[in-house]
Design brief:
10 strands, single chain, five-stranded mixed beta sheet, 341 residues, alpha/beta
Length: 341
């Protein structure tokens, strides 16, 4: 619907025809989508193709990105991917990464958190059931294999339980079921959405110790962009985020369809049963029946930041200013008074 400008002709707000025309073109343009030619952007995924990124596949296949004027390329990630560097350098416009990006922000890399897809992180401590380990205290004097990503959550869990620094020996992460069965290390950092299923397939009973049960409650798989992208393309950021969240809603209500897509189009090697397990675990961490997908809370981010402070990874005077994206900023039309005054 075209904007109505009757108020421009009242004695109080009368303005020139030229200015009215310019305002009409500007405000009228707001009713249109992005440019007719799709804008190409890259979304850097945290890992290889999996149900973990279901919403983004759905946004492509269901045309949500296309309707927003976007041509989105999904790029697989891996242990070598440096998400903040990729965003800041312009190598990608958007990225899926962990809440540890707050540390990158504090180190001068202007990244912005757009949404938290998982309300609780899937990072867990996985131990063989036969080990008899039931809680973090029993890891004192033992060895855990961790990746750089899950180290903060596990270390914070140990710290919260009063285990002194160094009491748990850490070794580089290596996913090898045989090694943990042999006892080469006592536990490993794992993702609850997929790795426990692989142990189950092998008939190896495991126990999961969740950091959030011990006061460490991080977000998982957050969507990020850069300050540059937000400053130069605010409408594109908004459109990308809206389309992505719409994709997530679709994906979680059409899981089998997304699983078919992963197997046929993205050549995912995981079994259908493994992908179903992943989808169910994702659903439990999203709380989508109770919380809007993508919801973020500033208080939760302060909890995350304070956790990093206790670990000595972040200075106590850290700030969340400009780190959290506001989807519904208070619109200001003060500039209109300058034009019409």
């Amino acid at each position: 619907m075209a904007p109505t400008f009757a108020f421009f002709h009242s004695p109080r707000y009368r303005i020139s025809g030229a200015v009215a025309l310019l305002l009409g073109l500007f405000l009228g343009g707001l009713s249109f989508g992005l440019a007719a030619t799709p804008q190409k952007v890259v979304l850097q995924l945290k890992w290889k193709h999996a149900f973990q990124f279901a919403g983004y596949y759905a946004a492509i296949e269901e045309g949500y990105y296309g309707a927003a004027g976007l041509d989105v390329t999904l790029r697989e990630g891996g242990p070598e991917t440096r998400f903040a560097d990729a965003l800041v350098s312009g190598d990608c416009e958007y990225a899926v990464a962990l809440s540890s990006m707050l540390l990158d922000r504090a180190n001068g890399k202007p990244v912005v958190a757009l949404a938290a897809i998982l309300q609780h992180s899937p990072e867990v401590l996985l131990v063989p059931e036969k080990s008899g380990i039931n809680n973090p205290h029993q890891m004192a004097g033992r060895t855990v294999a961790v990746s750089p990503d899950d180290t903060p959550a596990l270390l914070a869990m140990f710290r919260n339980e009063g285990i002194v620094k160094g009491a748990v020996k850490t070794v580089p992460y290596e996913f090898d079921i045989d090694k943990i069965v042999r006892g080469d290390f006592d536990g490993m950092g794992a993702y609850s959405i997929n790795e426990p299923f692989l142990f189950r397939e092998r008939g190896v009973p495991v126990r999961l110790i969740q950091p959030r049960d011990y006061g460490v409650d991080f977000y998982g798989d957050c969507l990020f962009t850069s300050e540059h992208e937000l400053r130069m393309n605010p409408r594109r950021v908004s459109a990308f985020l809206d389309a992505s969240l719409k994709g997530w809603k679709y994906a979680m209500h059409h899981r089998e369809e997304i699983i078919d897509l992963l197997i046929s189009k993205y050549q995912v090697k995981a079994s259908r049963e493994a992908l179903r397990f992943e989808a169910q675990q994702m659903d439990e961490l999203m709380f989508s029946d109770l919380i809007d997908i993508g919801h973020m809370n500033e208080g939760r981010w302060h909890h995350i930041g304070d956790t990093y402070v206790r670990l000595g990874m972040l200075k106590p005077d850290y700030s969340l200013q400009d780190f959290l994206y506001d989807r519904n900023p208070q619109k200001s039309y003060a500039w209109l008074w300058w034009v019409v005054g």
